[in-house]
Model the fold of this input.
Amino acid sequence: MTQIAKIIVDVPTMQTNRPFDYKVPLKFEDAVKKGMRVIVPFGKGTRKVQGFVIDLTDYSEFDGNLKEIDDLMDVDEVLSEELIQLGTDMAYKTFSFQISCYQTMLPSVLRASYQKTVRIIDEIEEELLFSLFKGKHEIPWEIVVEQDKVSEIMKLKKLDKIEIIYNVSDRSTTKKKTIIYPQLKYEEYEEIKIGLTAQATKQKLLLDILQSLKAEGIDKNGLVKEKKISAATVREAEKRGWLLQKKEEIYRDPFENSTFLKTNPLPLNEEQLSAYEDIMKSIEQREKTVFLLKGITGSGKTEIYLQSIAEVLKDNKSALMLVPEIALTPQMVNQFKSRFGEEVAVLHSGLSNGEKYDEWRKIYREEAKVVVGARSSIFAPLKNIGLIIIDEEHENSYKQDENPRYHARDIAVWRGNHHNCPVILGSATPSLESRARASKNVYKLIELKKRANKKPLPEVTLVDMREEVKKGNRSSFSELLKKEIKNRIDRNEQCVLLLNRRGYSSFVMCRECGFVLPCPNCDISLTLHMDTKTMKCHYCGHEENIPNRCPQCQSASIRYYGTGTQKIEEELQALIPEAKIIRMDVDTTRKKGAHEKLLKKFGSKKANILLGTQMIAKGLDFPDVTLVGVLNADTALSLPDFRSSEKTFQLLTQVSGRSGRAELEGKVIVQSFNPEHYSIQLAQTHRYDLFYKKEMNLRRSSQYPPYYFILRVSVSHENELKAAKKMNEIIEFIRPAISNQAIVLGPTPKSIARTKNKYHYQVLIKYKHEPALYEKLHELLLLTQKDLQKGWSIGIDPEPTNFI
Done:
């Protein structure tokens, strides 16, 4: 009976979530699996597209002649049954296409073009060796397909007699080493040594090594470097039949130059032990509980994670640990590698494509059971998951801003339900949505109210910068903060300084006519960067030289206004010349491994001040940090975002927690031009519960989450009138599916109305229960595909986190 494959195809001009039926040719009958990528013909002509096999059946409802699968892109499934199902649900909830969901789940190397080769690794039948391989050890996959030998090759692969090698077209993503294998018996090498002259010392040494080798061979590089045997000697030995050289692909290890000292579990205090026992009970009973672990900074949440994972591993299950920022991964990786060693794989954007692919393969092959990573690692191909953890669960970086617009927390809960395992959402400052779910018993709340080291939370002092200005202090540092920084340097202690802005200044302005240098592509001013001596746009990347004169009135009275990390660094160095400063922002951490390098430098006390943006506000743990300074606590409060108070409270609480985490007492100084604001006042006294109650009352009265769901539909176009008109048309299309209980805000231009030469309009829909809305929006998704080809950008964002 003919096998039918149901395939989600990738046709950029006409995506759909409906699978298409294709016949499986006889030559692929034993090879095609669910979760594989294939090449199929699509439409008229000879167009070939990529697709994912999501099901195999023996029946099709299609009346016409079915086309056949043209070729296989994989020899094993790259998506499990679980991830296929997740992609279907995810596409529905995020208003996206399944094909983009599946592609998001895979490492970028698997989205690149590559060639497959088949290599013999054990003895095979002579007939196949000579008819297909022509006596060679490695042949291109295309020869296997041409000679209709796919079934035989797949059987040999199952028997571990051959292996499939993926050669990526980008050579930087592959890594190989030359392995030397002995070709003679021990006695034969002895005979050869007898015939050598006394001067042939290197040949004798090589023969000794070949005699001692086992089946795994030896790395040629090590042989040449350590034993000083030349490559020419090796080549000559190969000609004489003494050895065989083979190029073999190896895993790239992002941590090959790192040392991890083995750590043992720490004793848990009463609160930690109670939390651990609750989690263990859920793991043992295979309950799908979602725990909200609300623990103050320094309360020992990470140790609970580590000990819970250790128990999961004992049961031969796997675990997934997410962190919100790449800046947090070095310290978290160190803790996990020190505890679990080679069991740990790491996935984040700081790795090269090749490193990510190799880490993904380790997970796929079950060679690593613990995954530590950022947002996209939620799709790691783990099997038999026993625990999922999302640290700093309140962070916006867990939500993807581009299609598919998923939130890692939602995916974690979905996978936890699928595997019947608990999910831990950890934070000192949980999002209001998560805390509200805990109050309704949707999540189970566990609280840690004491620091693990039994020390109190650091004292927080507010400095009113308006008073500093009145006293004539126009610097970025209050007198108190300057004094405390100098004290820490004198005592050989360390400081962390937070400035929530990168670059040198916010803008350049002419004092004669008020002209501010704008970005030509966006409705925003350019930012000064002194390291490159350029003006840059942080939205579209436009860059130009710093002007000496005002482009509008030609005046030389052009000045820099605002404050950025570069400017603060220069100002601080001038105020305290003896200070050794490390600046950590997007500009200083662009290079691979920069985060880890800077944090190591600070951890080894080669600097006494760590100055940075949001990335230094959470998760970092340095025992000698006794002072945290927040230079501009008000930044987020001025943003047009209903979560601005929540983000300010979270940021101040998190950064305060970096101080006094060991034996030394900590202090925090928060500078503000608006110190009376309740988010700053309550962060000063670490009163999360009071902040939660106050903010929830405000959200209820203003009809915002978590009391309402919120959804944004946006339109972008180079022509402003067209963008506004299209937004109105979309609202009229959606309106019949919305009840009178829903609240529609807009259409309005976005806060930054133009970026990358496109004008942006949006509408926000606030609702509690609108059963017809999702279907209508999916209809919109399909209908607007043709508009995308004409230069439109149309986005549907469920639960947006960014309103700028």
Notes: Residues 168-172 have pLDDT under 50 and may be disordered.
